[in-house]
Design a protein that fits this description.
152 residues, alpha+beta, Alpha-D-Glucose-1,6-Bisphosphate, Chain A, domain 4, seven-stranded antiparallel sheet, 3 helices, 7 strands, pathogenesis-related protein, Bet_v_I_allergen, Bet v I/Major latex protein domain-containing protein, plant defense, Plant_def-hormone_signal
Length: 152
């Protein structure tokens, strides 16, 4: 099992960022990163633990058309969510297992630290550098969305 980690600080409060990441990700990502994610929808479950989300990728993701992700970790009290790819996307690129976990920690009332951990299995000896860049773009996109709306 290979692992990659990154951290990003968002200039928004933990509660609003957590809501975006854990409840509204499928509907907000296409708005904030339309070139990466064209659309997303919950296709199984109620959006909670065990739910499956289908993301269709945009023109900036030429090697992948779609990816189904299952929510395999969801802890409201510790602000932790884990998404495992179960079909398409990274699994079509040689990965046999691909999971992304987000851990949110409040720094202050209007600042949140996000720890991102990727766990994966692949034939490659090194993980692609774009792996962690996607999570940073996602968090920064959510941050910009929250700052531009009344959601915070």
């Amino acid at each position: 099992m290979k692992e990659a980690k990154t951290q990003v600080t968002a200039d928004v409060g933990i509660d609003s960022l957590w809501k975006c990441l854990s409840k509204d990700l499928h509907s907000i990502l296409p708005q904030v990163l339309p070139n990466l994610v064209q659309n997303g929808e919950v296709i199984e479950g109620d959006g909670g633990l065990g739910s499956v989300i289908l993301f269709n990728f945009g023109p900036d993701v030429p090697n992948m058309k779609y990816q189904k992700e299952k929510i395999v970790e969801l802890d409201e009290s510790s602000h932790r969510i884990g998404l495992q790819v179960i079909e398409g996307g990274h699994l079509d690129l040689g990965f046999t297992f691909y999971k992304t976990s987000f851990q949110l920690t409040a720094i202050s009332e209007k600042q949140t630290l996000v720890d991102v951990v990727y766990e994966c299995e692949t034939e490659q000896t090194v993980l692609p550098s774009k792996t962690t860049a996607g999570a940073v773009a996602c968090i920064k996109g959510l941050e910009n969305y929250l700052l531009s709306t009344d959601a915070i």
